[in-house]
Model the fold of this input.
Amino acid sequence: MTVASSSTPRSTPPVAIAAPKAQRRTGTRVGDGRGDGALAAVFVAPAMTGFLVFLLWPTLRGVYLSFTKFNLLTPAKWTGFDNYIRMVNDPIFWDSLRVTVEYVVINIGVQTVVALLIAVLLQRLTQSVWLRSLVLTPYLVSNVVTGIVWLWVLDTQSGIGNEILGALGLGHIPFFNDQHWAIPTIALVNVWRNVGYTALLLFAGLQAIPGDVYEAGRVDGASEWRMFWRISLPLLRPVLAVVLIMTIIGSFQVFDTVAVTTFGGPADASNVLQYYIYGSAFGRFQFGYASAMSVALLVVLSAITVIQYRLTRAGETDLG
Amino acid sequence: MRFHRRLAGALALGLVALTGCAKGGAAGSPPGTVTYWLWDSNQLPAYQACARDFEKRNPGLHVEITQLGWDDYWTKLTASFIAGTQPDVFTDHVEKFGQFADLKVLEPLDELPLTKGISDSSYQPGLGSHWIGQDGHRYGSPKDWDTVALFYNKKMTDAAGISAQEMDNLAWNPQDGGTFEKAIAHLTVDDKGRRGDQPGFDKNHVKVYGLASGGAGDADGQTQWSAFTGSADWTYTDRKLWGTRYNYDSKTFQSAISWYFGLAKKGYLAPFTDYNSQSSQANVQVAAGKAATAFDGAWMISTYHSFNSMDIGTALTPVGPTGKRATMMNGLADSITKHAHNLVGAEKWVDYLASDACQETVGSYAVVFPATPAGTRAAVAAYRKKGIDVTAFTEPVADKKDFTTFTYPITNYAADVYALMHPAMQNIYANSASVSGLDRTNSQINLLLSH
Done:
């Protein structure tokens, strides 16, 4: 089976670099190289300012604060590795990490499968822009509003969702208030909100697969099911890998839904790491310790991203 | 060159815009403005009325009131201290002020010309002393007070054959729950119409709970279990104010807690799963007809009496093993922030808030009991005018013979105490964990306090 050739990311950079060189040589648009540099600085400045002020500096400052005792309103006091030693010995930290991983597994597992299904259906069954837009609708609602709406819908006593379950004879389920239900419920509420966006990213990846590959498959007598496993999924792998990296990072940072529904309860059953960090910082004024936990989260996420990137060969494509 | 000049101009404009952002909030208010924050939306109209009168008396001063829900209030306040956009004056809570005083973000009122004359004797007994920090300075000017009582649905108590007088004379003990447990068992009804004290009662299919859930109560149990532990001769800490050790490891406390949450296992108290601080608080459970009674604070009187076509009664807290009734008596106060943008205006506003003029105005709105006796009288009269009997809330303060009143636990590390007790109490209520687990939690708390 042959597939249409396409430039791999590795072949792209020389092309991208070549174009500006050609422009500089002609000097037709912005004059000499010096003018070019100034204009480039103007264009880069907003993003660079944002990067330095809102990302790099806070990160460096956060790493520094993780080695201090700091209550935000009085000067930080250097304490060396005390916060890290405390973190390693803090059972609540480890429990939060466990709860967070549980959330990520459910959230990403369900979200990826459902998003993939929606993306394939959108690609293979419909051309309707209206339907594609509809899939994205929950993503347009803010996390906080989503959390509150589902809190009301699933309220144990008077939520319409539980009323329906009751009417069906299934009894009332304490979705947000039971230690076993809390994390799966939050994970699925966020699946509801984000699945459309993820599906759209995967859909875009599917659109990039040349049609003649499917045509060849059909000529060979392959079923839709077989084409999904043999064509769509392998050729979607780089996009799927990047989407997974992005969604897993986002999933590890879950906060809003917990903050408006369970407040980390019952009995810390949904005390995800971000919520624990927030509580330590803004509730207990332990910004040094909160910074140490944030650094730990950064390390965990970086490690997961690198491992995932390598395992899924996200930078390579099977196309071509 | 012209390009560089334009670039510089654009950058300057951007910087000005950023500066404008940074100057938002209190710092960006017009001259003469006093910024004031509170969390109770019910009280907003009353304080707006006070502000109008204050502005008439103080030409050139304008009070800008911001109301934020409890859950956002403290986070935003903390953020405002960092950003320098803190309000000049804010409604403070005894649980919080110690930490703010430690962080040096509050003005000692006893050192300011207009507020240094605040005297404990001007307020209901006990309220003033709560706001003295460990350093001996006053950080709050008392503004109101509250106690806890038992709200009940009169139609349900009538149907159960329990009179108002009987509701007012309930007693409890940690062994068999006394007449209180008998009453709420009788008020509990399952989906087949059987009452909690009748044969065949199905505790797994309860239609109406005898007692609404107010959650697990965290470190204070103000509207959950404090009326019981308080009447069992238990105190939160070793000292009335600024205690140095907590007593959650006391067998008296643990037996009261065990009995109280045991009511949920019997089906009389709504289970933890039925409670949610956002969507299903105790008052919502009563309003929805899912619970017959609920312990709640005086600040909720107008809420309970606003339920459509529901006749609500209020009963005194039950008599405990000590032979006395008990309720927490808590009070809020107004604090002035350090580096207030309008310190003189803030002093004048706090001075006015503490005056009989404002206290009586607030009282006339019948939303809270103001801290001064005159303000309290105005509130009682306003409630009476609305046909609401508030004796169950005022009697504990007046009758020291039959009542014990106690304050919120005031200690260092209040936020840490909360962080440790919050999951511990939920674990007992939601997951039926043993109360003996509180021994370990108490040790952790006391270890913190010993530093």
